[in-house]
Amino acid sequence: MTTECRFCNGERPAPDHRVGELGATTLYLNDDQFFPGWVVLVLKRHATELFELEPAERARMMDEVSRVAGVLHALYAPRKINYGCLGNQIAHMHWHVTPRRHDDPAPRDAHWGVAHTPVRLTPAELSERIATLKHALGL
Amino acid sequence: MTTECRFCNGERPAPDHRVGELGATTLYLNDDQFFPGWVVLVLKRHATELFELEPAERARMMDEVSRVAGVLHALYAPRKINYGCLGNQIAHMHWHVTPRRHDDPAPRDAHWGVAHTPVRLTPAELSERIATLKHALGL
């Protein structure tokens, strides 16, 4: 727990984007839904690099990333799923899992390099997308 | 083995950038060394998404990603290490592990979004960087 950490202090990700608890991680829908189904898994404890985790904890976290990816694949039928753990802005370990669609404007590029206006869902759309994910994950 | 896959057919990554065998993966120095120490771990068998791997294989792969990250951290003392498995250009599962330095031109951005001229090492520099990594990994 590091109080300066915006994940540890609950400031981020946006609490209303929380999908549910997975075990080692908490799942959130990403604020920006330009890539539909883009989610973020946040490690429940503060750590920054993979080698700070014990092997069993790392495996558990990656199993959760994999489980979520499988559900996103079933829901969105993407061309490819992108997995990224950067932490350049908030070092607290988290994983971006991003379905990349066939009609994506730049399907061969990293989504970080795709210029776009962020897509914010309406409250109704947000509730529906979270409910769909919760149902698919059995949460 | 998919013969159309540029990783399976040995075309990529550049064979002269091979560092060594780790177990589930083969380690290569990335062609572009704009971010010094940027490496790529390629899964030895053809798979594209995390959920295609058995849990034990996935854990083994991630332990190797973690081991390499630890070595890069010791060698380059980065501000943060970035981990990415995209596969938008070559879907065969591979991990970019990229030390991001304090003097990085955009340390808060994903390295995919940092415009730069690729840095190609001379043959002597390439040999030295690979030898340093091999030594640090005990390969």
Structure description:
The structure is a homodimer of 139-residue chains. The first copy, chain A, is α+β, with helices and mostly antiparallel strands. Chain A has one domain (15-103, 119-137): HIT family, subunit A (2-Layer Sandwich), CATH 3.30.428.10. Chain A has two helices and five strands. Chain A has a five-stranded antiparallel sheet, covered by helices on one side. The model of chain A has no long low-confidence stretch (mean pLDDT 96). The interface between A and B is medium-sized, with 35 and 35 residues.
What's the topology here?
Two copies of one chain form a homodimer.
Chain A: E1 18-21, E2 25-29, E3 39-43, H1 55-76, E4 80-85, E5 94-100, H2 123-137
The oligomeric state is homodimer
N-to-C CA distance of chain A: 26 Å
CATH superfamily of chain A: HIT-like
Number of strands of chain A: 5
Give the total of domains of chain A: 1
User: Do you know the CATH topology of chain A?
Assistant: HIT family, subunit A
> What does the average pLDDT of chain A come to?
96
**Can you name the CATH architecture of chain A?**
2-Layer Sandwich
Which key terms come to mind for this protein?
139 residues; 5-stranded antiparallel beta sheet; alpha+beta; homodimer
